[in-house]
Specification:
Shape: elongated
Largest sheet: 7 strands, antiparallel
Structural class: alpha+beta
Helix content: 25-40%
Strand order of the largest sheet: 17-16-13-14-15-12-18
Radius of gyration: 25 Å
Strand content: 15-25%
Oligomer: single chain
Number of helices: 13
Bound molecules: flavin-adenine dinucleotide
Distance between the termini: 15 Å
């Protein structure tokens, strides 16, 4: 019995049914539809995985679970995922930033593929079948549904997904597993006092965002929003800092470098402009790849009027401008979900699960896969990849 009809549950069920044709495989899904997260994922396009040169590069996308996944990916990795879908008539394409989608740009293609593969392999899918309890019994399990029915299973694969609430782990995982307390990952920063909130939509292609007092730092596109900051650099930072930020109540100082340079190199270039552009107005000629509206806002904050000529800019103002360009502090006060997309940091402790088989070390015969585990990735297809890989390895191990 596979409990949970999401990405990990379907991959596990299909792998088990294909590998063990004599086994009867049933997916029990509590909702009225299966694969609902796949449907809404990637803005309805389903970002299936990420194109990387090899497993080592893939592993760098997991703030939690990297070591565990190394063993899992040795059995089924991103390249196997691409091949798995291609063999079933679903080619994937790669976008410039490495994200991989079905060529149809529709998550329905992925859902249809998974439903077809499950049907062909003889997997029974039961919706509106929420599981209340799993009890080990005579070398197998008794699986009790909320609606009163009890099923008997030789093996159980648990793929109920991330639970934002610690109580969500109580019932099904109460078989001796340690739970790493869940907190959200993948969110954007609220900065109510930011003067840059007046510039929503402005994007800097390669900003660096650091969290003051930590070693956490990420480089990439930074997007200015009407509530604060978003964009890949911020989302990655929220993933790597998920635990620290939760402990700090989502209050932190974010230090942003908009330029890629250091204070000294930027300050020296500003001096160069003073000579080379002496008669030009500072506000009309942005530098360091900073978009014009942001450049003007930073100049204003540094005390340099837009129409000030470079030759007339006071050294003190240029010092301040160099500081704002390379180390601008912003007070983060809270978080906002990114396009409804989020994952759970935390879950079933990986020390309780064998990474070679995904079998529980606490409860033999019980397997666990997907976001239920204390594994989560950055955005870009990493979370589905963890679900496909752990689901697959659990599925091929479950009947051994
Ligand atoms: C809006 C959104 C967009 C996303 N987009 C992407 C993306 O493009 N790329 C990417 O890599 N990741 C994305 N993610 C993350 C990704 O969707 C998840 O990491 C992934 O779905 C986890 O798969 P899973 O099978 O472990 O869990 P889930 O997909 O959450 O599936 C768990 C299933 O178990 C069922 N269930 C729970 N409890 C019970 C019970 N007691 N009995 C029976 N059934 C139960 C649930 O109803 C659910 O269907 C997105 C997440 C969200 C919220």
């Amino acid at each position: 019995v596979v409990i949970g009809g999401g990405a990990a549950g379907f991959f596990g069920a299909i792998a088990a049914a294909e590998r063990y044709p004599n086994a009867r495989v049933t997916i029990l899904e509590k909702a009225r539809t299966v694969l609902s997260k796949v449907r809404v994922s990637g803005g309805g396009r389903c970002n299936v995985t990420h194109a990387v040169p090899g497993t080592a590069a893939m592993l760098k996308g997991y703030p939690r679970g990297e070591r565990f996944l190394k063993t899992v990916f040795a059995q089924f990795n991103h390249a196997d995922t691409v091949e798995w879908f291609a063999r079933r008539g679903v080619p994937l394409k790669t976008e410039a930033d490495g994200r991989m989608f079905p060529t149809t740009d529709s998550s329905e293609t992925i859902i249809r593929c998974l439903l077809d593969a499950a049907r062909r392999a003889g997997v029974e899918v039961r919706i509106s079948s929420g599981v209340e309890r799993v009890v080990p019994e005579n070398g197998g399990f008794e699986v009790s549904l909320y609606l009163g029915e009890t099923l008997r299973a030789d093996r159980v694969l648990l793929t109920t997904g991330g639970q934002p609430n610690p109580a969500g782990y109580d019932g099904l995982v109460a078989l001796g597993h340690a739970i790493v307390p869940p907190v959200p990952s993948l969110f954007t920063f609220n900065v109510p006092d930011s003067p840059l909130r007046a510039l929503p939509g402005v994007s800097v292609p390669a900003g660096t965002v650091r969290l003051a007092g930590t070693k956490l730092s990420q480089t990439g596109p930074v997007l200015l929003t009407h509530w604060g900051f978003s964009g890949p650099a911020v989302l990655k930072l929220s993933a790597w800092g998920a635990r620290e930020l939760a402990m700090a109540g989502y209050r932190a100082t974010a230090l942003i470098n908009w330029t890629g340079g250091t204070y000294d190199t930027v300050r020296a270039e500003l001096d160069g402009f003073r000579q080379g552009r002496s008669n030009k107005q500072i506000g009309t000629l942005p530098a360091f790849g900073v978009p014009q509206r942001l450049w003007q806002a930073l100049c204003a904050e540094a005390g340099v009027g837009e129409t000030t000529r470079w030759a007339e800019a006071p050294a003190k103002a240029l010092n301040r401008l160099a500081e704002l360009l390379t180390n601008a502090p912003f007070q983060v006060q809270g978080k906002t979900t990114y396009k409804e997309e989020f994952v759970t940091c935390g879950g079933v402790s990986l020390s309780d699960v064998d990474p070679h088989t995904l079998e529980s070390r606490r409860c033999p015969g019980l397997f666990l896969a997907g976001e239920l585990l204390d594994i989560d990735g950055i955005t870009g297809g990493y979370n589905f990849q963890a679900a496909w890989s752990t689901g697959y390895v659990a599925g091929v191990s479950v009947g051994r």
